[in-house]
């Protein structure tokens, strides 16, 4: 009896729990993109890092959560297509690594800004952040 109700509980948690997670994540990332594209924030390299972090995070959420929603009412494409399974996994890992690297670059930029040497501080620029 309990074992047969577990898939229904799992579907309910996915349908309602992940929906809230997804909606709040997308809304927050959109607000971040709006804020960091304003003229006052475009002057600092850290805003470039946070803007790219928001874009990567929104893409990551969309890439990983939409197939979960689709598989609630339709057959799971990952179990039917080996190519789709590999591409979805690979792109998901690449987006996750881009998020991590962006955070590391933002931390390095903030560390460089706190140095006493002018030459080291000059490494923190918008041109370097865009590269």
TrEMBL record:
<keyword id="KW-0472">Membrane</keyword>
<keyword id="KW-0812">Transmembrane</keyword>
<keyword id="KW-0297">G-protein coupled receptor</keyword>
<dbReference type="GO" id="GO:0005886">
    <property type="term" value="C:plasma membrane"/>
</dbReference>
<feature type="domain" description="G-protein coupled receptors family 1 profile">
    <location>
        <begin position="28"/>
        <end position="131"/>
    </location>
</feature>
<keyword id="KW-1133">Transmembrane helix</keyword>
<keyword id="KW-0807">Transducer</keyword>
<protein>
    <recommendedName>
        <fullName>G-protein coupled receptors family 1 profile domain-containing protein</fullName>
    </recommendedName>
</protein>
<feature type="transmembrane region" description="Helical">
    <location>
        <begin position="14"/>
        <end position="36"/>
    </location>
</feature>
<dbReference type="InterPro" id="IPR017452">
    <property type="entry name" value="GPCR_Rhodpsn_7TM"/>
</dbReference>
<keyword id="KW-0675">Receptor</keyword>
<feature type="transmembrane region" description="Helical">
    <location>
        <begin position="48"/>
        <end position="70"/>
    </location>
</feature>
<dbReference type="GO" id="GO:0004930">
    <property type="term" value="F:G protein-coupled receptor activity"/>
</dbReference>
């Amino acid at each position: 009896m309990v074992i047969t109700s577990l898939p229904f509980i799992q579907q309910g948690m996915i349908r309602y729990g992940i929906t809230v997670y997804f909606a709040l994540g997308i809304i927050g990332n959109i607000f971040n993109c709006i804020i960091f594209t304003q003229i006052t924030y475009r002057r600092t390299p850290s805003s470039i890092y946070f803007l790219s972090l928001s874009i990567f995070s929104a893409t990551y959420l969309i890439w990983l959560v939409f197939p979960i929603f689709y598989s609630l009412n339709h057959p799971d494409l990952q179990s039917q297509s080996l190519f789709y399974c590999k591409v979805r996994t690979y792109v998901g890992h690449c987006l996750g690594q881009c998020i991590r690297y962006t955070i590391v670059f933002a931390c390095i930029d903030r560390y460089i800004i706190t140095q006493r040497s002018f030459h080291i501080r000059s490494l923190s620029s918008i041109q370097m952040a865009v590269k």
